[in-house]
Each structure stands twice: as C-alpha cells, then as structure tokens.
Write a structure and sequence with these properties.
Blueprint lengths: L12 E6 L3 H13 L4 E7 L3 E3 L14 E2 L3 H8 L3 E4 L5 H20 L1
Parallel strand pairs: 1-2, 1-5
Antiparallel strand pairs: 2-3, 3-4
Length: 111
C-alpha cells in the first residue's frame, strides 16, 4: 500500500522549527505561503526563546516569546511530527570550501 501524502490527511502536519534567523524565517514564510494546507509550524525555537504559533495565527513579536523549555517537552507540547533545523548561511563560509573543492577537482583531472 503506498504511503499517504500530506494532502490526504484531514489536518496539516505540525512542524517544529529550530532556528529563526534569515533561513528559518524564509522557511516559515514559504511553509505558510505554499504548504499551509499540508504543514504548519507548530513551534519555533530560537537561541534563547520559543513560541507556539497556531496554523493561522500571526507570529508574535520576539519580545512576547517564552523562555526555552527542554526540547523533549517542547516537542510534546507542539505535537510536532517533523523537526526542521535551520542552519545559518552566509556567502563567506561557503565560498572558501567551494573554491578549495574546485582546485582539488582541477588538480585531480590534470594529474
């Protein structure tokens, strides 16, 4: 029997988002804009705070978020079935390894 797709569920699947910098915020906005009927962000954890927005609620200002709770407790509170960790990105850290990798590939192909 094939696995059910998210749209076959009667309710959206809850997601816990860990990290709310630029990457996490973009993920949050895209889920809401394009996948709201299939998924919703049930909880967001920052470095020092967390919040539990509902599927259609407005995200409160960071000043109104709560202090962090243990991750196991937060997972239970949100009933999240998926945990997404948003990792910071920056052009500077990624360019150096890509350049080094390109040099290695070029050296290997000319040897």
């Amino acid at each position: 029997m094939p696995a059910a797709t998210p749209s076959e569920h009667s309710r959206p699947i809850p997601i816990l988002l860990s990290g709310f910098g630029p990457v996490g915020q973009e993920f949050f906005n895209r889920i809401r804009a394009h996948h709201g009927k299939d998924f919703y962000v049930a909880g967001i954890r920052g470095r020092t705070d967390e919040v539990r927005p509902g599927p259609d609620t407005v995200l409160p200002d960071r000043a109104h978020w709560n202090a962090l709770t243990p991750i196991a407790e937060f997972l239970q509170q949100t009933s999240a079935l998926i945990l997404v960790q948003a990792i910071p990105s920056s052009p500077k850290p990624t360019r150096v390894p890509l350049k080094r990798q390109s040099r290695r590939c070029a050296t290997a192909s000319t040897s």
